[in-house]
Request: fold
Amino acid sequence: MATAREIRRRIQSIRNLGQVTRALQAVAASNVRKAQQSVSATRPYAKAAWEVIISLGAVSPQALHPLLTKHSPINNILIVLISGDRGLCGAYNQNIIRVTRDFVSRRGLPTRYITVGAKGRDILWRMRADIVAEFHGLPPVPSMVDVSAIARAAIDEFLERRADEVYLARTDFINVLTQKPVIQRLLPLRPLETEAQVMQEYIVDVSTPPRVDYIYEPNAEHILNTILPRFTELQVYQAILEAHASEYAARMVAMRNATDNAATLVEDLTLDYNKVRQHSITSELLDIAGGAEALAQAMAKR
Reply:
């Protein structure tokens, strides 16, 4: 059984850890509020933009823009994997990586990666995966400037035919307690055909919006050359906002659970400490009483 001094040291150590997790919880709570506001502000526009480009992709895609062109056959794919830079966020990083690996395994095609976040990059390096580019250290609420290089790298891979399809592996923010890892096809900007919907439990945006005949001024080529790259950047930007909000929510919940567990453990150890002290005091009293009794008997024999 541990001594009272050892238990005191453990209690102090756990209290210190509890202070750290409480501070991390407060920081994550502040970040998740900012990230949630950004997600809520941009989600309607991103959804409307996605419907526009999918509608465009359903109408003579090869004649309109290269980003709308379907490559055939599909020989290789590129995945933009969005994970966190740090741990201490529960199963957030493990979930998106598990879904991505499952998706790649069932597609059965050569796969290259663009990683956003140090955790995903490190795991893919250990797996000896083919990483095209890696980005990390993004701010809690990134701007379009922070994301443009990521989208540009994915677009270049597609346009130069080094990738026939480009997917986003991200985590959708549903609420503070629920985050869902999903796969979204980014390029080509076309609706998914039914026979290509592998892993439908993970792929989002598989439905085709209503067809709309757009009027282009001055002309379709000029308009699409301008808006399609920007709309593609917007989808990457929205995916990163969703992922950041999910990461901070997962970290806040994990740190809150850790803080609560630390408090519970301190209570249990305090109870053990009191039992050890009581046992020690009782033993000392018994020793004193036994000594006094022995002394009294010795005095009585004289």
Summary: The chain has two domains: 4-21+255-301, 42-253. The first strand starts at residue 77 and ends at 82. The chain has six helices and five strands.
